[in-house]
């Protein structure tokens, strides 16, 4: 009788524990990091009370707790909570609690605070991942025939590289025809992509930042006329953990963040965009207000590398598809303003094209070369476009298979060096290039 009661008790405990685990739909994910706070994200399957507990790896007995948040259907059962008891330059473990029960995972759940290096030491070494175009198959809504998404194990390869953070360069999910006409559909597909099993370990221990492109904004080649753009902006902000959005106060997702001595400028190439087929007036991708904010922000930045993240290619001279070359007047305005303001250290980061390539533009010996790294695609269909019409293309950098980038910035403050590595789905290096900050200065 005692054995039977013990068996029943253990069974009830296991069932209760299993129910708690089953309440997690996706995540947890680590969002932005600063010296004094970091964002923690999770999505549950139903309305639940959620909180996180965290502790310095070097002092695990001193535990801290976030506020408790009740997830709701209207916001996709998403919780975004702030770890606000952290100190600079520390590494933290964290635990997720749903309805009072600790959720266990078989991979690390950790985050870091940024280092207070200013006036003290050289800036720390920084490593970050980049990629774009992530298609997670959903047969009932996908186009018939061969699945468009594949090799999702690439996210496990990124996780094994242990970058400080990942910068997602757009088309991070692909809205389908049943999705983009309703909030219900958009929420569904963001949830479906975020729930990919191969993604979970990467989400849990690497900080994440993101911009968008057409497919996570709306239909293919979507522009400012998209009728649900306010909804997709709302849901993008719900599912990502950038420190700020819409810094120009005109809608959209424009923002910026710093990591060590680097600064990243997150541009919105959809919210203000003129239709590709509308030639009746001024044609714009970013719009003057966003470009003028960017130039002012770049001019204010002391970063040796100023990374400008945008959904589509900027420097390529191939006036095709959705490249900036198809909007020549605004492209010229942007590049002229960068030169006119004598802004140094500019590197563009973008995606969209379903292949990877590095472009380099130097108009004369009086100016430094500006680089544009296109990195695509992660899991969506890839292609072997050779960029034959791109006069700025660097030979040996075109990649026509699933890939991602690992960018590393190291060296003393006065001599920082950017190393770019492009790797295949298994983490094997395809090519590598060093760029010195000293070489991105005016003479």
**General shape:** globular
Biggest β-sheet description: 6 strands, antiparallel
Helix/strand structural class: alpha+beta
- CATH architecture verdict of the largest domain: 4-Layer Sandwich
CATH fold category name of the largest domain: Purple Acid Phosphatase, chain A, domain 2
Number of strands: 21
Helix content, binned percent = 10-25%
Kindly report how far apart the N and C termini lie.
Answer: 87 Å
- Number of discrete domains: 2
Unreliably modeled segments? 9-17
Gyration radius from CA atoms, angstroms? 22 Å
Query: Class of the largest domain in CATH?
Result: Alpha Beta
Treating each run of at least 4 consecutive H or I residues as one helix, how many helices?
8
Order of helices and strands: HEEEEEEEEEEHEHHEHHEEHEHEEEEEE
What do we call the CATH homologous superfamily of the largest domain?
Alkaline phosphatase D (PhoD)
Oligomeric status of the shown chains? single chain
Mean pLDDT: 96
- Estimate the strand proportion: 25-35%
Domain DUF7800: 25-114
InterPro entries: DUF7800, Metallo-depent_PP-like, PhoD-like_MPP, PhoD-like_sf
Protein name: Alkaline phosphatase D
Keywords: Signal
Explained architecture:
The protein has helices at 2-22, 154-161, 183-194, 200-205, 214-217, 229-239, 288-300, 328-340; strands spanning 24-33, 38-44, 49-56, 63-65, 69-70, 78-83, 91-98, 101-103, 110-112, 126-131, 165-169, 207-211, 255-259, 262-266, 306-309, 346-350, 357-361, 370-374, 403-410, 417-424, 429-436. Mean pLDDT is 96; it is low at 9-17. Strands 3, 4, 5, 7, 8 and 9 form a six-stranded antiparallel beta sheet that branches. The chain has a six-stranded mixed beta sheet with strand order 12-11-10-19-20-21. Strands 13-14-15-16-18-17 form a six-stranded mixed beta sheet, with helices on one face. The protein contains eight helices and 21 strands. The chain has two domains: 30-112, Immunoglobulin-like (Sandwich), CATH 2.60.40.380; 126-440, Purple Acid Phosphatase, chain A, domain 2 (4-Layer Sandwich), CATH 3.60.21.
């Amino acid at each position: 009788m005692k054995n039977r009661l013990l068996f029943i008790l253990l069974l009830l405990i296991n069932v209760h524990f299993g129910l708690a685990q089953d309440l997690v739909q996706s995540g947890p994910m680590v969002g932005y990091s600063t010296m004094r706070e970091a964002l923690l994200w999770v999505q549950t399957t139903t309305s639940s009370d959620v909180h996180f507990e965290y502790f310095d790896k070097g002092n695990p007995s001193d535990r801290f707790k976030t506020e408790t948040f009740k997830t709701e259907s209207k916001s996709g059962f998403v919780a975004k909570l702030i770890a606000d008891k952290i100190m600079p330059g520390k590494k933290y473990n964290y635990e997720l609690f749903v309805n009072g029960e600790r959720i266990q995972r078989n991979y690390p759940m950790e985050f870091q605070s940024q280092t207070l290096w200013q006036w003290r030491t050289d800036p720390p070494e920084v490593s970050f991942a980049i990629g774009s175009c992530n298609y997670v198959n959903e047969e009932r809504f996908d186009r018939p025939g061969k699945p468009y998404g594949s090799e999702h194990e690439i996210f496990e390869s990124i996780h094994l590289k242990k970058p400080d953070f990942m910068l997602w360069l757009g088309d991070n999910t692909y809205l389908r025809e049943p999705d983009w006409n309703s909030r219900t559909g958009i929420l569904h597909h963001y949830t479906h992509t975020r729930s990919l099993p191969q993604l979970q370990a990467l989400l849990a221990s690497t900080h994440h930042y993101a911009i968008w492109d057409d497919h996570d904004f709306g239909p293919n080649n979507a522009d400012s006329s998209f009728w649900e753009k306010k909804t997709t902006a709302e849901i993008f902000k719900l599912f990502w953990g950038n420190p700020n959005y819409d810094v120009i106060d005109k809608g959209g997702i424009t923002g910026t963040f710093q990591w060590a001595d680097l600064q990243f400028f997150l541009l919105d190439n959809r919210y203000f965009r003129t239709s590709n087929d509308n030639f009746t007036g001024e044609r714009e991708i970013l719009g003057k207000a966003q470009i003028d904010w960017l130039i002012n922000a770049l001019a204010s930045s002391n970063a040796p590398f100023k990374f400008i993240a945008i959904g589509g290619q900027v420097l390529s001279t191939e006036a095709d598809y959705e490249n900036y070359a198809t909007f020549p007047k605004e492209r010229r305005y942007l590049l002229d303003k960068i030169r006119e303001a004598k802004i140094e250290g500019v590197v563009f980061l973008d995606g969209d094209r379903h292949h990877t390539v590095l472009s380099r533009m130097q108009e004369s010996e009086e100016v430094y070369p500006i680089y544009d790294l296109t990195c695509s695609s992660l899991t969506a269909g890839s292609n072997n476009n050779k960029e034959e019409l791109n006069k700025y293309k660097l030979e040996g950098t075109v990649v026509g298979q699933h890939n991602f980038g690992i960018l590393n910035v190291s060296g003393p403050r006065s001599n920082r060096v950017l190393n770019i590595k492009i790797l295949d789905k298994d983490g094997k290096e395809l090519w590598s290039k060093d760029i010195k900050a000293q070489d991105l200065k005016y003479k």
